[in-house]
């Protein structure tokens, strides 16, 4: 990943990809106190466009606010940088990764002289969970790791350190031969995937866990809006693990994962054991929306 051509924005400068480095005493590397985003740009008939750029940048600043981390740039500047990183790297479609982290100015939890550094990189990234899985669905296991408790870490923040929990769950799932983990909250209710929000469908109605310890996903919000626009009812509520087992359909949403069908959970088929019709409808609507083939929500697309 580090050994390639391209340019990365770091603290206001455009740095050759291979030289975009930080010191081994970088504070965030040691303690995980940092914030980041995952954003996608898609090829559209009018040129490459970033999907819900302003919403992602707002969440980045909210995450930093939650952590008490002052970002030394404003949102408009970082929006411009994200457009430019796609342009400068000559990408038609892209995954964009902004991150704000504490530097190597001090060490220890009590360091009080830390600077906040910002980077933005972009590269081309296809289907996060694989093209075939987008058609046929993925196999998921309920994790032995619970999702964070709301008073143990700040779940509204997309914070680096929160991903230790995601990584433990994902590694366990992959080791056991599954494609992704489904994490329950500390009370045992279904919460989210390691990097995705989760939805189920039953009798034509869509359900998703209400946001307690799950990230307030931008794809989740998009899918809720799209569902309602085509007349489907969406209910946010507590969901139990066995409700997922007996759902007609289930799917994950995320910027990287887009809309990924779930065909199996803990060895039980979900519905017909393949991508369900409502999932398929929402998945294609999502792709129409992000690639500018829908007339609704032009404000969600920012041309680079
Ligand atoms: N939950 C977690 C833990 C995530 O990492 C992500 C990916 N950012 C999501 C949900 C989905 O969020 P979004 O749709 O904004 O990418």
From TrEMBL:
Spans through the membrane: none
Keyword Disulfide bond attributed: no
Pathway the protein acts in: Amino-acid biosynthesis; L-valine biosynthesis; L-valine from pyruvate: step 4/4; Amino-acid biosynthesis; L-isoleucine biosynthesis; L-isoleucine from 2-oxobutanoate: step 4/4; Amino-acid biosynthesis; L-leucine biosynthesis; L-leucine from 3-methyl-2-oxobutanoate: step 4/4
Top-rank lineage group of the source organism: Bacteria
Entries under InterPro entries matching the protein: Aminotrans_IV, Aminotrans_IV_CS, Aminotransferase-like, B_amino_transI, BCAT-like_C, BCAT-like_N, BCAT_family, Class-IV_PLP-Dep_Aminotrnsfr
Cofactor(s) the record lists: pyridoxal 5'-phosphate
Enzyme Commission number: 2.6.1.42
Catalytic activity from the UniProt record: L-valine + 2-oxoglutarate = 3-methyl-2-oxobutanoate + L-glutamate; L-leucine + 2-oxoglutarate = 4-methyl-2-oxopentanoate + L-glutamate; L-isoleucine + 2-oxoglutarate = (S)-3-methyl-2-oxopentanoate + L-glutamate
GO MF annotation terms: branched-chain-amino-acid transaminase activity
First-level EC class: transferase
CDD domains: BCAT_beta_family
Keyword list, A-Z: Amino-acid biosynthesis, Aminotransferase, Branched-chain amino acid biosynthesis, Pyridoxal phosphate, Transferase
GO CC annotations on file: cytosol
BP GO annotations: aspartate biosynthetic process; isoleucine biosynthetic process; L-leucine biosynthetic process; L-valine biosynthetic process
One Pfam family linked to the record: Aminotran_4
Function: Acts on leucine, isoleucine and valine.
NCBIfam families xrefs: ilvE_I, PRK06606.1
Protein name: Branched-chain-amino-acid aminotransferase
Gene: ilvE
């Amino acid at each position: 990943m580090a050994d390639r051509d391209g340019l990365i924005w770091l603290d206001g400068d455009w740095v050759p990809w291979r030289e975009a480095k930080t010191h081994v005493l970088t504070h965030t590397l040691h303690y995980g106190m940092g914030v980041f985003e995952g954003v996608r740009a898609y090829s559209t008939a009018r040129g490459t466009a970033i999907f819900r750029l302003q919403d992602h940048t707002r969440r980045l600043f909210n995450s930093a606010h939650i952590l008490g981390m002052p970002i030394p740039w404003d949102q408009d500047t970082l929006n411009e940088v994200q457009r430019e990183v796609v342009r400068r790297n000559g990408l038609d479609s892209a995954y964009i990764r902004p991150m704000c982290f504490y530097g190597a100015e001090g060490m220890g939890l009590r360091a009080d002289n830390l600077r906040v550094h910002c980077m933005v990189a972009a590269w081309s990234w296809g289907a996060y969970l694989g093209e075939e899985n987008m058609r046929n669905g993925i196999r998921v296991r309920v994790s032995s790791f619970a999702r964070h408790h709301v008073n143990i870490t700040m779940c509204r923040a997309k914070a680096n350190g929160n991903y230790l929990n995601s990584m433990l769950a994902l590694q366990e799932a992959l080791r056991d031969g599954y494609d992704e983990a489904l994490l329950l909250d500390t009370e045992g209710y279904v919460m989210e995937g390691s990097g995705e929000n989760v939805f189920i469908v039953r009798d034509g109605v869509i359900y998703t866990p209400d946001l307690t310890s799950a990230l307030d996903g931008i794809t989740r919000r998009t899918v809720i809006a799209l569902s309602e626009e085509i007349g489907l009812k969406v209910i946010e509520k507590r969901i139990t693990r066995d409700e997922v087992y007996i759902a007609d359909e289930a799917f994950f949403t995320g910027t990287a994962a887009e809309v990924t069908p779930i065909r199996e959970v803990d060895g039980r088929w979900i519905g017909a054991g393949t991508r369900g019709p409502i999932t398929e409808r929402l998945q294609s609507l999502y792709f129409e929306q992000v690639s500018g083939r829908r007339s609704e929500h032009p404000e969600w697309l920012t041309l680079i």
